[in-house]
Amino acid sequence: MLTGKAVLVTGGTGSFGRKFVEVVLEKYPQVKRLVVYSRDELKQFEMSQIYPLGKYPQMRFFVGDVRDKERLYRAMEDIDIVIHSAALKQVPACEYNPFEAIKTNVLGAQNVIENAIDRGVRKVVALSTDKAAAPINLYGATKLCSDKLFITANNFKGKHDIKFSVVRYGNVMNSRGSVIPFFIKKRPGGILPITDPEMTRFSITLNEGVNLVLYALTHMWGGELFVPKIPSYRIVDVARAVAPECRHEIVGIRPGEKLHEEMITETDALNTLEFDDYYVILPATPLWDVARFKEAFGGKHCERGFRYCSGTNTQWLTSDEIRGLIEKHIKEDLHTDQERQREDRRRLSLLQAAGHKAAGLQAVSERDEV
Hints:
Oligomer: single chain
Shape: globular
CATH superfamily: NAD(P)-binding Rossmann-like Domain
Mean pLDDT: 90
Helix content: 40-55%
CATH architecture: 3-Layer(aba) Sandwich
Number of helices: 12
Distance between the termini: 77 Å
C-alpha cells in the first residue's frame, strides 16, 4: 500500500506521528519518502537521531506549522498520501486560548486540504477525537469543524483525483497529557486526583490507532468517518491499575469535560453503518452508492436510537487488563522517562555545584581585591 509512495504526516513528532513512522518503516521499508512535518525543532532533532539519513534514506524532516500555508505547500511537493494529526489537543489550553485552537485546528485543516488538492495528493486521512461528537468544549468544536471540512473536501476537489476521509477514536494510551502517564507521575505522592468516580472514557493503544489509519488508507472510498469498536474504562479502574496503594481524592470535573464521551451520537447513527470491527458515519452529501459500499464490506445500518458512548459500551477493561496493557505498551516508555528524569536531576546537581563553586571563587577574588 505504501511501497513506492511518498507520505507526509503533520504533527509527525507527536505521540501518533512517532508511532506511525515506526510502524510504517517496519511494515513498508520500501516507502519512497516519509516526511515528518511539525513545528517542534527539538523533537525533530531527537527523531532524526533515531532515524539517521544513512540508515533511513527515505526519511525527511520539515520544520513547519500547518498554519503556514506556503511552508506546507512546499513540504507537499510530490507527496502521494497525507496523514493529518497536527492539532492543539489539551482541553484547558484550548478553552483559555480559543483563537490559537481555531488557527491550528480549523484554519490549519483548511490549509492541509487546499494544498493537498493543489499539489496532486491522492489520499488524505485526518485524525479526529471522541470530543468532536456533540462537543461541549472548544477543542471538540474545532475538531468537529475540521471533520466537516475534510469530509466536504470531497465535494469541491473538482477534477483532481483525491480522496479525503477521517478516523475518530478515543483516548490514546500513554499519549502526552493522557491519564495513565499523569497517574504514574502522581503515584509517588500517595494520592491520585479523580475528577469523578463515575467518569468513563474510550481507550485505544497507539498501535491500534496507527493500524486503523492504515486500514482507512487501504479501504477508503472518500468521505467516510471511521470509528473503531474499542473498549471503555472507568477512571477509578485506571487509578487502581496504576497505583492500587494510593488514596483517591475527588477533585471534580474540569470545565469542558464530559462524564462520558461519545463517538457516535443518536443523530449520527441515522447515517451510520456498522461493520465487524468499526462503524462508518456516511457523508451528508452522497458521494457513492451506499448499497454497494455495504455489500463490499459486509455492513448494515445502525438501529434507530443507537449511540456509541463510553458509559454504555459493551466492552470494558478491568483493572487487571489495564495493568497488562500498561506493562505491554508503557513499561519501556516509563523506563525511558525515569532515566530522563534521573539525568535531568544529575545535570541540575552539576549546575548547582558549578554555581556554588563559581560563587566561592568570586568571594575569594573579592577578598583579594580588598
